[in-house]
Amino acid sequence: MSGISRRALLLSSGSAVIASTIAATAHAGEPRRRDREPSRDLRALIKAHKATYAAFGNAIQERDGSNREHDRASRAEERALLAVCAYPAVREGDRRAKARYLLRIEGRGELDLAEHMQALLGSTNVERVGDWLPHRGTWTSVP
Hints:
The protein is mainly alpha-helical. It has one domain (6-128). Helices cover 63% and strands 3% of the residues. It contains 5 helices and 2 strands, in the order αααααββ. It has helices at 6-27, 40-61, 67-86, 92-107, 114-123, and strands at residues 132-133, 138-139. Strands 1-2 form a two-stranded antiparallel sheet. Helix 1 packs antiparallel against helix 4 (92-107). The model has no long low-confidence stretch (mean pLDDT 79). InterPro entries: TAT_signal (IPR006311). This is Twin-arginine translocation pathway signal. It comes from Mesorhizobium delmotii.
């Protein structure tokens, strides 16, 4: 019997997907100037995740906070992180910014749900890029 669990394999697969994105971008030719910077949509998603992550931390630290408030803040943070994972990073700047940000999240051990992996892998499917709804942070349909 193998000494590696499915969860450990899933986590290492996520790191491999992110690392391969970085490696692929390193081998690509020099992108056009406008493609080097992250898009406004991705910057907004990352900013939203940072805000919901901070709000979740505050909800946990509040002494008078209820479990319902903690759960609500946790779900909001999770939705924001899934939106970053699912964002189809087509431009060079988006790929680099998304990879850097998600590697930081993974470094804290917080990129550990199957939904994260599904969203991340779904975001690499070029055929689905047109199905992305940036204002909702989701896909039009499940693949």
